[in-house]
What we know:
The chain is mainly beta. 0% of the residues lie in helices and 45% in strands. The chain contains no helices and ten strands. It has a six-stranded antiparallel sheet, with no helix packed on it.
Amino acid sequence: MGSARIKKGDSVVILSGKDKGQTGTVSKVMPKEGKVVVEGVNMMTRHRKPTQANPQGGIDRVEAPLHMAKVAVADPKDGKPTRVRFEEKDGKKVRIAVKSGETIDG
Length: 106
């Protein structure tokens, strides 16, 4: 399969849906499902029944996974969405932002 275009810790921009235009950091990548979880984006409420561990119960707000196609890596230069290209630098495969030509990983 090769290297992933979106990795944990990347700054991404949401391209579509109710959170369109928002930016956030990827907290989890699920390559088999083709989904990512972005901090503070695509929030969902989960009603919890009272249990012994949590006698109060209540409503939790959690992040739901988003499809990878709905997010794009934010350009390191201006923070706008960009596609990702792979190049080899000093024998290492690095990710490059197509818009600005900036290297994404160190």
